[in-house]
Amino acid sequence: MAPWSVLDTPMAKIHQHLCAFHVVADQHGRQIQSHHYCSCISDFHQCTIYDSDLPNARLIGIEYLISEDKFNSLPTEEKQYWHSHKYEVESGVLIQMHASGIEDDDSEYMTGTLIKNPDLPLGAPSLMMSYTNPEMVDWELVKKRDQEYDVNTIERSKARSTYLDLKYPKNEEADQWMKSGGQPVQFVPAVQCSSLGNSNGNGKEASSNGNSS
């Protein structure tokens, strides 16, 4: 048997480190800094998400990023689980770590999960979303992140405004969790474990508990 090497594992395909903040879909006031380690699989990205970039960071979820065209092809029922990245890209809140330039995540959607218990992932997974407007943002969290990593969210936003099409409309079928009058979008715990293990690429993969247009 050949010696084990990280080069022979999925970890070797991770090529991007993003930092942003996630919001629990049915608890809008609950936010968490999220470090995404992403790899490209065919025409979508898949990311493992941690609560920090330190060696002892906890795995808190997974996230899939797809193009707007692929999102438009999803069944109507499926679209309720996906969210946009238009605001967090334009605002500078979403940053690419360890990069000198300013990234543009283009047209993408994500879903994810969160650890609810501080010591052990217990209970059903939670659906996580992204900021859609400045009123949602906990700017103290953003300020703390910026100081820690020596970045400037406001300056990034100004720079991105010079090349992003800010008038490009957000897909109205995304971010259904924000629409008033409806029930909070969240997963319904399944009885059978096989249902929780669904990895069909639609963003409903169960994990530790927990577009930009």
From TrEMBL:
Residues 193-213 are annotated as: Disordered. Pfam families: DUF1264. It comes from the Eukaryota. Belongs to the OBAP family. This is DUF1264 domain-containing protein.
